[in-house]
Amino acid sequence: MGDGLEIGTNSSQHSYFVPMVDMLAGVVFLLIIMLASSTLVTRQDFGQIESTKKEIARISAALDAARAKERLYLEPRRRAKLAMGALLENLAASLDKQGFRSVLDVEDGRIAVAGNVNPFSIGVSRLDSDGQRLAEALAEALENELQCLAANAPSSVNCAVYDDVKLETVLLTAPSSDAQVGNPLKKARALAMLSAVIASSPPLLDLKAEDGADLFSFGLQQGTPIGSDGSVEFHFQMALPPIK
Asked: What is the dihedral of CA 191, 148, 76, 211, to 10 degrees?
């Protein structure tokens, strides 16, 4: 009996002390974690780490904002520049096949075109036979390309080179280096050439910009002409999102 009682007492003591040891081990483990955390927070470079994290977050936000602006402002301008180059090169190639030389200014979106002779009768705004032939060549070249660039033009499988870029304005001018040629005559020549171009291809008159305004206009060229005396110039401007 004595032996049985002694065995029971030992068993009870064993089942009591083992959970207590486990609990104490857990408490010690928690104390170690708390001490390690306290040591980390009180280190001198902890504040620098937090400051560095904040600076990284600020830089990341600035980069995200810059990428957003690039998508909104820079990318459309890059595509517009590529489209402008393609437009002027295609126009020049089409006109060259019909014997008309061209001078290009891709940066400013201008093309000056003339035949081997002055397309206008001397001293007046009336087109001569070469001028009429030039107007017909211009009409054909413009109709082929502007069907891709006008806001209301039907889509075409041949428009991939222009992506989704659209024109805002097409200004036709008739500059002259002749000091005797005044502004009224320059404007009259521009109007005469534009009228002849539209008469050769009436659908051009219906082409619109994205705001619904007519695509074509005529007037005086601002700045130095890029063509020779008697040439006609087109100044193209692509539609771009405003920079805010």
From this structure: 60
Q: How many CB atoms lie within 10 A of CB 201?
A: 18
Q: Which among 160, 165, 189 is positioned nearest to 175, based on CA atoms?
A: 189
SS3 letters for 149-202?
HCCCCCCCHHHHHHCCCCEEEEEEECCCCCCCCCHHHHHHHHHHHHHHHHHHCH
Whether the CB-CB separation of 139 and 200 falls below 8 Å is answered with: yes
Say if CB 80 and CB 165 are below 8 A apart: yes
Q: Within a 10 A sphere around the Cβ of 161, how many other Cβ atoms?
A: 15
pLDDT in tens, 15-70: 544 565 566 666 666 767 776 666 655 555 555 666 777 777 777 777 666 666 66
**Half-sphere exposure at residue 91, Cβ-oriented, CA atoms within 13 angstroms:** 29
DSSP state of 118: -
